[in-house]
Design goal:
The chain is mainly beta. The protein has a single domain, classed as Fumarylacetoacetase-like, C-terminal domain (Fumarylacetoacetate hydrolase, domain 2, Alpha-Beta Complex). About 15% of the residues lie in helices and about 35% in strands. The strands form 3 sheets. Strands 1, 2, 5, 6, 8, 9 and 12 form a 7-stranded mixed beta sheet that branches. It starts with a strand and ends with a strand. The structure holds magnesium ion. The site of magnesium ion has 7 residues, from strand 1.
Length: about 200
């Protein structure tokens, strides 16, 4: 499986990092080795500024290429939450040089995903999700603020990358990204249910 991620899909987050609001979705990939095994994350030795980014994640249930937006909903049945961990110091250095920032985003353990839940349980156009760091809320998002909605993202991404069953789509993070340090405790909520509980080792 592969992980397709969307950057800058919430204007308040694009602005907090000093980025322009994009006219088309910004995509990047994480390999399957990016998925964290277990419930503890060790901060990699190559970064001094590891950031959390909480995102709604879509699990692809039907393969497809050139998926039309109106058919996109047929290609996923479940959603969950994920953390797109980012070595912000490395990403900033690479961005400044105009280089691809893959190593800051796609390293081992950089993707955390919750369990997945039937999409019918939710209103995908107005889904609340939030992240607590050490019991204090640091991110609060609602999918209504997405620049590109889920079906648009599925359609757009499938122009370039064939979706296979089990692929994951990270749909972008809202405002409030920030660093983690050793011993931090992250809890992510989908509506009022806690779906991720992660200890930084
Ligand atoms: Mg992200």
């Amino acid at each position: 499986m592969k992980i397709i991620c969307v950057g800058r899909n919430y204007s308040n987050h694009a602005k907090e990092l000093g980025n322009e609001v994009p006219e088309e979705p910004v995509l990047f990939l994480k390999p399957d080795t990016a998925l964290l095994k277990g419930s503890e994350l060790y901060i990699p030795e190559f970064t001094n500024d590891l950031h959390y980014e909480l995102e709604v994640v879509v699990k692809i249930s039907k393969a497809g290429k050139y998926i039309q937006k109106e058919n996109a909903h047929k290609h996923y049945e479940q959603i969950g939450l994920g953390l797109d961990f980012t070595a912000r110091d490395i990403q900033s250095q690479l961005k400044a040089k105009g280089l691809p920032w893959e190593i800051s985003k796609a390293f081992d353990g950089s993707a955390i995903v919750s369990s997945f839940f039937k999409k019918e349980t939710f209103n995908l156009n107005s889904l609340n999700f939030s992240l607590l760091k050490n019991a204090e809320q640091v991110q609060l998002g609602n999918t209504s603020a997405m620049l590109f909605d889920i079906d648009t993202l599925v359609s757009y991404a499938s122009k370039y990358f064939t979706f296979r069953v089990g692929d994951l789509l990270f749909t972008g993070t809202p405002q409030g990204v920030g660093p983690v340090k050793e011993k931090d405790h992250l809890q992510a909520f989908l509506e009022s249910d806690k779906v991720i509980d992660l200890q930084i080792a």
